[in-house]
Amino acid sequence: MAAAKGDGAVGELELQAAIGFNGHVPCGLICHPDWEHILYPLGCTVVIQHLDTKKQSFLHGHADNVSCVVVSRDGMYVASGQVTCIGFKGVTALLLPKTGGLIVGTGEGTVALCTGSDFQVKKRMRVEGAVASLTCRGRDDQFFIGTNKGQMHRSAYATFKEELVAACHTEAVNDIVFPEGHSDLFVTCSTNDIRVWYTPERLEQLRITVPNVTCHAVEVTRDGMVIVSAWNDGKIRAFVPATGEPMYEINNAHNLGVTAIAATSDCKQIISGGGDGQVRIWNIGEKTQKLREVLKEHRGAVSCIKINKNDKEGVTASLDGTCVIWDLVRYVRKQMILDNTLFKCVCYHPGEYQIITSGTDRKLWDYKEGTVTHVGVGHSGNITRLKICPANKSIVSVSADGAVLIWK
Description:
Elements: E1 30-31, E2 37-42, E3 45-50, E4 56-59, E5 66-71, E6 78-82, E7 91-95, E8 102-106, E9 110-115, E10 120-126, E11 131-136, E12 142-147, E13 152-156, E14 163-166, E15 175-177, E16 185-189, E17 191-198, E18 203-220, E19 227-231, E20 236-239, E21 246-250, E22 258-263, E23 269-274, E24 278-284, E25 289-296, E26 302-307, E27 313-318, E28 322-327, E29 332-338, E30 345-348, E31 354-358, E32 362-366, E33 372-375, E34 383-388, E35 395-399, E36 404-407
Antiparallel strand pairs: 1-2, 2-3, 3-4, 5-6, 7-8, 8-9, 9-10, 11-12, 12-13, 13-14, 15-16, 16-17, 17-18, 18-19, 19-20, 20-21, 22-23, 23-24, 24-25, 26-27, 27-28, 28-29, 30-31, 31-32, 32-33, 34-35, 35-36
């Protein structure tokens, strides 16, 4: 410890040892390329510790908590960022390329190339969301950017312009649907938005955003002219598939939110399910939407609705552990299936002699006998929806765990 000076100035304490590790910093524990040291953040300091002797040295200079640490491939350079930094809104990721300089990613979506002895910003670009990760390609002519909005971007060092590589929903996917006869496109929904995807390249083609509400279910009419959707604010919303422009809204469709949706093959009726357990049938005209019938059997929220090919029968699944098969001509119940599970989704087999259900379990049911024929395990979270692809070769399921699984 340095002694206090006679003029009253306060001396500095020398840091001798550090006990602790900030485990909240992503990828904050780093093994040095010399295989003899580890580096990690602790408070506003970066600790370098020898693995055998436990001897520590320290990198100082930050005035706030260290938020990220990176080491160059040859081990000669260490870069670290802090929660607050002049010129940036929170440094969240760093990259040391072989070409020199430092690439900085921030919580506001800025990616900057800093060069020179004072690391001044030379180039800058913006991405959507906070930068969560930066990584370089092996040839070191490109690098990739990951954000907390579920997006991946690619950029060349020379041009420093972002190119979107992949995107996805940021929360659980609630539904998936293929347009009739088309395997190259599918539609998904989640919190705040509906997205249309191009299957061969797995790229987003269209995003329909409705802020501060959650879309529980989505349907494409058989003629491909309308995207119909169910929302937790009690509204049914319809959009133009090509542009995402609104077509119509049905307000107060269900008291406790609209939780499921389906359309008849003639596109003249919509069947909706709600958090109140009711199933409602709507007549859809060119300029009008009128309630036709209300069906009451479920005691819990309706989670999924499917209609058979001739529009004369439908099946609804509910969180109360029931699936009801309906006569859509006389508007009465035909059959009920009970099980000790929370039914999340249901669909008809292409031959319509079976229905497939899923929820807290994964089961294939025989339609006529009401018995289990197959069981599949793969998702770690509740399955929210499943669909048979138009080619009838696979079943696609999506889940609260964010996974999309394909079953034979």
